[in-house]
Design goal:
single chain, 429 residues, Aminopeptidase, Alpha-Beta Plaits, nine-stranded mixed beta sheet, 38% helix
Length: 429
């Protein structure tokens, strides 16, 4: 099948798919009409074909970027490489901000608004992790290959397509490679962008994991804590009777889990997890320090505050009890440090950006579904700024594991979808 016939068939499928993909009562007919009109545009047809033609180049960039480590708080090398791609693609301006985000601006013909398109640079994997890509039967295996290196690669192909096909958005488009999305990064990159005095951003579109049906318009809030008990430490026999930080930590965990389990058994969904425990030097030494890290999430911001109260009570009760039990030496001390705060919030599914995303997704013969998640979009959502997170497409699995994989199964469609959403939101000449 030649390219012309293939693209004609693709267009027919896209235009006709509204009847089978998504009940139209959830999508305003005006957005369905606008999407159908845009899909018939000659430049859009050519852009879609260009994205397919760039498949091998997209794959090459995908592998090269993935093989540059980007551990938490150490995204610099990947950021520099990503910025160089932006420069090679001749964006109007390219810079790395003080937080480490890579920013590339494409000026719009009108430039009255700014639409941001984001993927995050960092992965969950520590420095020294083997990130070399292994290819087995067309499947890519490597830590971070899907989350979120694929998203970064999508931005590059999208930019090249806009440039090659001379498509001019009406709004300014700010392309973002953000830092600090994973783990204790605490969305620091996006928090910096949306700080007072930060760049003007009117709409936000993030690409981060999942299939092309995903439309995330709700932010799942989370609080994260590091709890530390400290004591003098000593020999397990010779200093027996000193207060033991591990014993206090264990009691605090027991106290908290019992109270949290009762609290979360009803009401809006709320979760808790003790994910990290550390401290101690040897089996025959009383530790001088015991640490745990806790993740708490809820769809309701007020419940995060109440869970925080439960944690503080659990720690203080354990501290008091263990200090009462000691036979000699100084008291234990405790500290609770909040090391993560991801705000929650949600945007109406009737918001124009959400409607455009639903309509564009349905056009690909996929039933879109609304989700709540913890992504870079949490920040603009919490501020009431139109924002969605969409999927990176293809097929993948085992995210956040050393066995992470991604298969380019119609992966180009995710890039085409991102382009369609971007142009629906920004407008085009």
């Amino acid at each position: 099948m030649n390219t012309t016939m293939r693209n004609t068939l693709l267009l027919f499928v896209l235009v006709s798919s509204f009847s089978v993909a998504q009940p139209t009562d959830s999508i305003d007919k005006s957005y369905i009409k606008a999407t159908t009109k845009l899909l018939k545009n000659k430049k859009i047809k050519e852009a879609f074909a260009r994205i397919e033609a760039l498949e091998s180049k997209t794959l090459e960039r995908h592998i090269l970027l993935n093989e540059i480590e980007a551990p938490p708080f150490k995204e610099t090398l990947r950021a520099e490489a990503f910025a160089n791609y932006f420069k090679e693609l001749a964006l109007d301006s390219v810079w790395i901000d003080k937080e480490g985000n890579v920013l590339g601006l494409m000026k719009g013909s009108e430039g009255k608004r700014t639409v941001a398109l984001d993927a995050h640079l960092d992965t969950v994997f520590p420095e020294g992790t083997d990130v070399q890509v292994q290819i087995k039967n067309d499947t890519l295996f490597a830590p971070g290959i899907g989350d979120d290196t694929r998203g970064l690669t999508m931005l590059l192909t999208l930019i090249e397509t806009l440039k090659t096909e001379t498509i001019q958005p009406k709004s300014n488009v700010l392309f973002v490679g953000s830092v600090g999305e994973e783990g204790l990064g605490d969305l620091r990159g996006v928090k910096y962008l949306f700080r007072d005095g930060g760049p003007k951003i009117d709409s936000w579109i993030a690409i981060d994991g999942g299939d092309i049906g995903r439309v995330n318009n709700k932010g799942l809030g989370s609080y994260r804590y590091r709890v530390t008990f400290k004591g003098p430490g000593g020999h397990s026999w010779g200093a027996f009777g000193l207060a033991n930080p591990h014993h206090a930590l264990g009691e605090a965990i027991s106290n908290f889990v019992e109270a949290a389990n009762k609290y979360t058994s009803e009401g809006p969904k709320t979760s808790y997890n003790v994910g990290v425990i550390s401290g101690g030097t040897s089996i025959n030494s009383i530790p001088f320090e015991s640490i745990m890290e806790i993740d708490i999430r809820s769809v309701d911001p007020s419940r995060l505050e109440e869970m925080e109260d439960l944690l503080e009570t659990a720690v203080q009760n354990a501290l008091a009890h263990q200090n009462e039990m000691k036979r000699e030496g100084p008291d234990l001390t405790s500290a609770i440090d909040k090391i993560g705060n991801r705000p929650s919030g949600e945007l109406s599914d009737q918001l124009p950006l959400v409607q455009k995303t639903l309509a564009a997704t349905a056009a690909f013969g996929v039933k879109p579904y609304l989700t709540r998640g913890s992504t870079n979009s949490n920040i603009p959502i919490a501020k009431g700024i139109p924002a969605v997170t969409i999927g990176r497409g293809g097929k993948g699995g085992k995210a956040h594991s050393l066995d992470e994989w991604w298969l380019n199964q119609e992966g180009h469609q995710a890039i085409q979808l991102a382009l369609l959403i971007l142009l629906m939101e920004s407008g085009m000449d």
